[in-house]
Amino acid sequence: MGEFELIAKYFSAVGAKRSDVITGVGDDGAVIQVRDGHDLVVTTDTMVSGTHFFANDDPRALGHKLVTVNISDLAAMGAEPAWLSLALTLPEVNEHWLSQFSAGINETAEYYNCQLVGGDTTRGPLSLTMTAKGLVPRGKALSRSGAKVGDYIYVTGTLGDAALGLKLQQGLHQVSKKHQTHILQRFQYPSARVALGQALRNIANSAMDLSDGLYGDIQHILHRSAVGASIDVQKLPLSQALKDSCDNNTAYGLALSGGEDYELLFTVSENKRGSLDVLLSPYGVAITCIGRITGAIGKLELKKSEQTFSYQPQGFKHFA
């Protein structure tokens, strides 16, 4: 099977069928109508075999995850997902793998109302790169640079489950049978908090998604906003599955530096905090206040029972 036959069979009609796509897969470029009064948000993520996933991982889960990690970046900026591009490098044409991988992309793109509009395929070591484009009302995009001293720090959902799922898959940690499905689902099939991200446009001062672990990711907000932060580790939202599977310090470590949570981290000023629960309650996602923004520029303080919590960060870093 050649490149163009591969594209036609597996990627020519992937995702939702959007009326704003004039020309999609199959031409030299996509032609898209961009809505008046909106800004375009663009993000790109790459997943490489042996670095981000195992070569024998379920290809359907890989397709799902590739879409979700990109959509999660759009969610963190309050954007509405719209269009996807895929750059796929394959060592060989494996039709079973391709059918499952494209199915994973298709069902996830449809769920988030996205359409695959183009990309590239080439031969080489297995590597998956996706670019996601979304729309946000003009001037309303959330960023990492708006945190203010005194802001309350929030996260959505629970933290650390995906990292435990990786350890379970690697055979490095035991999890009881009743929790295994939940833990593996959080690692293999993450969710992007799209609706909640859009609801935060007029509430949050800053926001980002959690991909490399809370401890490392919040440093980006501190740097971009020229602020510090104080976090109480006892307030970190931990699932019952995580608490049943780990001692406290291991659970805190996974929540702080495990990564791949794809939850939202955001800050809210005092005067908007009171309405937060009411505004976000329709979205069915728990939010937890874990600390405050401080004036100690670039300093992240971890506390436990009002005492300093000593912690050696373990977050993932490329080229470290």
From TrEMBL:
GO terms for biological process: thiamine biosynthetic process; thiamine diphosphate biosynthetic process. It comes from Rheinheimera salexigens. Mg(2+) 3 binds at D28, D73, D209. One of its GO terms (molecular function) is thiamine-phosphate kinase activity. Gene3D superfamilies: PurM-like C-terminal domain, PurM-like, N-terminal domain. InterPro entries: PurM-like_C_dom (IPR010918), PurM-like_C_sf (IPR036676), PurM-like_N (IPR016188), PurM-like_N_sf (IPR036921), ThiL-like (IPR006283). Pathway: Cofactor biosynthesis; thiamine diphosphate biosynthesis; thiamine diphosphate from thiamine phosphate: step 1/1. Keywords: ATP-binding, Kinase, Magnesium, Metal-binding, Nucleotide-binding, Thiamine biosynthesis, Transferase. The lineage of its organism: Bacteria, Pseudomonadati, Pseudomonadota, Gammaproteobacteria, Chromatiales. Substrate binds at H52, E260, F316. Its EC number is 2.7.4.16. Belongs to the thiamine-monophosphate kinase family. This is Thiamine-monophosphate kinase.
